[in-house]
Amino acid sequence: xxxxxxxxxxxxxxxxxxxxxxxxxxxxxxxxxxxxxxxxxxxxxxxxxxxxxxxxxxxxxxxxxxxxxxxxxxxxxxxxxxxxxxxxxxxxxxxxxxxxxxxxxxxxxxxxxxxxxxxxxxxxxxxxxxxxxxxxxxxxxxxxxxxxxxxxxxxxxxxxxxxxxxxxxxxxxxxxxxxxxxxxxxxxxxxxxxxxxxxxxxxxxxxxxxxxxxxxxxxxxxxxxxxxxxxxx
Length: 233
Prior knowledge:
By secondary structure, the chain is an alpha+beta fold. Helices cover 33% and strands 21% of the residues.
């Protein structure tokens, strides 16, 4: 099944996942940028190596909240699973067609063929849910069975979280449902920005004088001699 957006794929977990991932990415960027600045390096290779930390940070943050994990071969990295979707946090390199060539490694390729884990008895989340009554418990059991049957022979959707950054600035965080086409290229569904830096309006307006009181100062007009024929001509 192909979902039209990450919100559809992640279900009711989407708002909490969005907020948590933004927090994780911003924290890692700040630390990587500080380390790059302290190193005094003219090159950004060290800054770019944060990709592994991003994977580990996202996995740990969601595992701490009870979400399951999936290990991708051959690299063996663990990725969080939310609502039977694989969540992959990735710093986009500054190379042409980077997104369409995302599945260029065996590990990333296997991310599009990952089987969903067995359903959990209790659904993880960001807030404590009330105790279910008998009818709700029966419905939950039925939902688990339905998910288990539907998962047989199926693969998990891949929610790709794309980080655009440089040592100077975290430019944007975006996400989308990534789909692999027959040519091995990645297409994005429901691509949207989930974080962008806010414009510094205070700095832009700090030099503008208020007209709440007093009289605005008008422009100074300097009289100039009228251009004409030189008397000696």
